[in-house]
Amino acid sequence: xxxxxxxxxxxxxxxxxxxxxxxxxxxxxxxxxxxxxxxxxxxxxxxxxxxxxxxxxxxxxxxxxxxxxxxxxxxxxxxxxxxxxxxxxxxxxxxxxxxxxxxxxxxxxxxxxxxxxxxxxxxxxxxxxxxxxxxxxxxxxxxxxxxxxxxxxxxxxxxxxxxxxxxxxxxxxxxxxxxxxxxxxxxxxxxxxxxxxxxxxxxxxxxxxxxx
Length: 212
Ligand code: AMP
Fold this sequence. Notes:
Blueprint: E1 2-7, H1 13-24, E2 28-30, H2 31-41, H3 44-54, H4 61-72, E3 81-84, H5 90-98, E4 105-110, H6 113-121, E5 123-125, E6 131-133, H7 160-174, H8 176-183, E7 187-191, H9 196-206
Parallel strand pairs: 1-3, 1-4, 2-3, 4-7
Antiparallel strand pairs: 5-6
This protein binds adenosine monophosphate (AMP).
């Protein structure tokens, strides 16, 4: 199964992507995580990305397209993959088509803007990619990652002002992808629920035809 996860920032793409990855045994490629690792390492890519990420804007298409090309060419993706956070613009989707990558399903997780702003204030993340919410999806020990034991932190771009900018970027540049993929007949949608496991049930139901 080659899957794209769509959704506003904070809709739960990363959380659901981890559940799908475990169930279907396919890797998840999260461009946001890759860019944050590059920022942490202080590489040229990281320095370039930081200016855009801090502003709630998209990193230039050519940069992320280059990253995705490299990942999709790896053996790990041969049996399927999840794209979490890519494509985020029509030119990125067109680039994927031009690469000859066949996408089976595009799953959009729908959450209204009002709920996103509230959710983001409770989000805590780990550098391993895990994501939590202080109320809706708390770690077993406060501020400690269940997966790797590292300290959790608040993403700088989860500050309310930046979240608002990210939401308007989403509506302007990413949301048109829903129509792009609906026209291809591969768009599925689920309503993001308050509880993670309720959203996961809907997600698994939407993907049930891909189960072995
Ligand atoms: P995320 O972790 O998916 O919320 O991504 C965090 C930030 O990384 C976004 O707000 C963008 O600035 C940048 N980013 C992630 N994926 C992409 C992409 N496909 N295209 C452009 N920018 C991206």
